[in-house]
Amino acid sequence: MFYEPKDGHGLPHNPFNAIVTPRPIGWISTRSSDGHDNLAPYSFFNAIAYTPPQVMFSSTGHKPDQPDSKDSVANIRDTGVFAVNVVSYELRDAMNASSATLPASTDEFAHAGLEKADCRTIPCSYVAAAPAVLECKLYKIVELAGEANRMVIGEVTGVHLRDDCMKDGVFDVTTFQPLARLGYRDYSVVKDLFSLSRPDD
């Protein structure tokens, strides 16, 4: 099968997200300029640089009370900061609950039954139970082709690692089993690892 996106795919569901998989989930926490905490998952997310450490996530579309974006982007645009919470398998239901379309003033931490903690380098809350958290200051918001498509790039200013996830000096993902987004309504979880040495090592 071959198709050009401009012509449509003719399938019951768009296969694009099922092709680019697995994708890590950026569970983005922000705080509005008037003090409302927000939490939402984004599967267009990744780390993009080592020095300084930088991450990105992309937001697509908008919501009724945010005509040109979603709450996360609007809050980051106003405050210049955000946090990325890593999603463990244990937190899957809370992550899903936080994806609901809710009014901008609604606290998704409370909606999902999550305990908050305070970031150290930025004025923002994070998920206390998350195995890792990246505190970020905004580097740039890039407008992408398409209506309300935006990529947010942030520089990491603080890193939280849960102590029980550290094994012999290594952040061991098998201790919490990170969630990954697949296509359609599908997810996966990382349980098994293998290593490969680069040819130049």
UniProtKB/TrEMBL annotation:
Q: Which GO terms describe its molecular function?
A: FMN binding; oxidoreductase activity, acting on the CH-NH group of donors, NAD or NADP as acceptor
Segments forming domain Flavin reductase like:
18-173
Q: Which SUPFAM superfamilies would you find in this protein's record?
A: FMN-binding split barrel
Superkingdom, according to UniProt? Bacteria
Name this polypeptide is given: Flavin reductase family protein
Q: What is the lineage of its organism?
A: Bacteria, Pseudomonadati, Pseudomonadota, Alphaproteobacteria, Rhodobacterales
Signal peptide (residue range): none
Give the organism the record lists. Answer: Thalassovita mangrovi
